[in-house]
Amino acid sequence: WAPAVAPAINVSSLDWPELQSTVSACTACELHQSRTQTVFGTGDRSAEWLIIGEAPKADEDQQGEPFVGDTGQLLNNMLRALGLRREQVFISNILKCRPTDDRDPQPEEFTTCETYLQRQIALVAPKMILAMGGVAAHSLLKVKTPVTKLRGELHHYGEIPLVVTYHPAYLLRKPSEKAKSWADLQFAASTVKGAQK
Ligand code: SF4
Predict the structure, then answer these.
(1) What number does the ligand 1 atom closest to the CA of 55 have?
(2) Which residue's alpha carbon is nearest to atom 5 within ligand 1?
(3) Which member of 53, 138, 147, 153 has the greatest number of CB atoms within 10 A?
(4) Strands 90-93 and 42-43
(5) How far is the C-alpha of 141 from the C-alpha of 81, rounded, in Å?
């Protein structure tokens, strides 16, 4: 075990190709030892919506893309209901490397990796961050409040509006919560539209 350390390189001036290659070579925390590849993020790099999930799972680690498989299909359906295609949003996770056995990330792992997400957010400059699931919400907002209490309110990550909703993997296990998630998406969409007026 080695303590997490912040990436030695200052990423705040990197462009997309530089950032992506820096992430793919990153060894700043122990998760680099167990990854197949980094999961950088995908989608429109100037999107209005930034979707952030938890740490990469096994299938994401294999494919190098966040929100794949059944979880990704449900996310795509949720976006479609909002009139958005997957390609029109930017999708990422709070960590770029998969924790072994798909355990939840340690806070210090997110602290180490957060600098990359912050650079992605600065480059995308989204109008809305959708934090999907407790791991994403707790990491981004630095709270331990349950998702049930965080949803339905407008939060911020820095200056960017942030809405919390359930992770699609949870909705697959508990479809009865889909209506609440749909309400969260509509709330987020109304915030984006309000910002455009
Ligand atoms: Fe680097 Fe983030 Fe991967 Fe850790 S999780 S090795 S900080 S890219």
Answers:
(1) 5
(2) 97
(3) 53
(4) antiparallel
(5) 27
